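Before a colleague's protein record goes any further, I have to sign it off. I want your independent view on whether this chain really folds as the tokens say. The record follows directly below this note.
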Amino acid sequence: MMDPQHFKELYLAIAPSRFNFLKSILEGYDGLAVLSSIDGKKGAVRLRYPPESEPLLFEILSALAPGLNRYA
């Protein structure tokens, strides 16, 4: 795996109730990205990912986007 200092970061706001869902999806793609909570009550999250995974990560996030803002 790449040196963590070379990872890119992406900050998102999602529905707090969707954190575990997104984490589970990302874990299914080994090494794609690491999801961390910044503010669990507000749904602020950080994704750290190697640059080469960006196209696939953004494709997945685009497909999931409508459901990530839904409060379930």
